[in-house]
Amino acid sequence: MSLIDHDRADGADRTLGLLLAERDSLRRFVADMMGRDPHGAEDVVQETLLRAWQSAGRLDWRDRPIRMWLFRVARNLVVDGRRRDRSIPVGITAADFGGAAPAPVPDHAEQVGDRRVLVSALRTLAPAHREAVALVHLLGQPGDEVARRLGLPPGTVKSRTHHGIRALRATLESHGCGPAGTEHLRGETR
C-alpha cells in the first residue's frame, strides 16, 4: 500500500468514525422531530449519513464540526418528507372531499350467505320464471334478446320476469330477508 493509499484509508476511517460518533445524537434529534415514526426516523438518519459519506471529499471535516451539517441535512429531509406526504394533487381541494367517510369494505361472508339465500329462493320458482329472472336480472341480458333466444314473444318474457320477481320477493320476505335486501330485483325488463 502506498503512502497516498494509506492516507486515504486513514481519512476514510476518520470520516467513518466521526459519522458513527454522531449517529446517536442524530437519531435522537430526528426522532424528536418525527414523533411516533421510529422507522421513518431511522430512514432519515441513514439517508443523512449516506449523504455525508458521499460528500466526504467536499466537506471540511477538520475545521468545522460535522454535527451542524448533519442536523441541517436531517431537518431538510424531514421537512421534505412532510411536504411530500401532505401534498394535494392539482385541481383537488379539501372541499371536494366534503368529509365523506371512506366507502365500506364489502363483507364477503355476508355475500356468501346472501348468495345461498338467493339460490335457495330461486329454486322455489317455476322453471320458466326462474329462467326468465336469471337471464334478465342475474345475467343482465335485455328482455328482447331473451325473447329471441327462448323463441317467445317479448310480452311473455316480461310477464314471466314480473311474476318470477314477485314470487322471489315473497319467498325472500317469508325467510326474513325483507324488501331491503331485494331493491335490485325490479319487475321491469331492460
From TrEMBL:
<keyword id="KW-0238">DNA-binding</keyword>
<dbReference type="Pfam" id="PF04542">
    <property type="entry name" value="Sigma70_r2"/>
</dbReference>
<keyword id="KW-0731">Sigma factor</keyword>
<keyword id="KW-0805">Transcription regulation</keyword>
<dbReference type="InterPro" id="IPR036388">
    <property type="entry name" value="WH-like_DNA-bd_sf"/>
</dbReference>
<dbReference type="InterPro" id="IPR007627">
    <property type="entry name" value="RNA_pol_sigma70_r2"/>
</dbReference>
<dbReference type="InterPro" id="IPR013325">
    <property type="entry name" value="RNA_pol_sigma_r2"/>
</dbReference>
<dbReference type="InterPro" id="IPR039425">
    <property type="entry name" value="RNA_pol_sigma-70-like"/>
</dbReference>
<feature type="domain" description="RNA polymerase sigma-70 region 2">
    <location>
        <begin position="24"/>
        <end position="86"/>
    </location>
</feature>
<dbReference type="InterPro" id="IPR013249">
    <property type="entry name" value="RNA_pol_sigma70_r4_t2"/>
</dbReference>
<keyword id="KW-0804">Transcription</keyword>
<comment type="similarity">
    <text>Belongs to the sigma-70 factor family. ECF subfamily.</text>
</comment>
<dbReference type="InterPro" id="IPR013324">
    <property type="entry name" value="RNA_pol_sigma_r3/r4-like"/>
</dbReference>
<feature type="domain" description="RNA polymerase sigma factor 70 region 4 type 2">
    <location>
        <begin position="117"/>
        <end position="168"/>
    </location>
</feature>
<dbReference type="InterPro" id="IPR014284">
    <property type="entry name" value="RNA_pol_sigma-70_dom"/>
</dbReference>
<dbReference type="Pfam" id="PF08281">
    <property type="entry name" value="Sigma70_r4_2"/>
</dbReference>
<protein>
    <submittedName>
        <fullName>Sigma-70 family RNA polymerase sigma factor</fullName>
    </submittedName>
</protein>
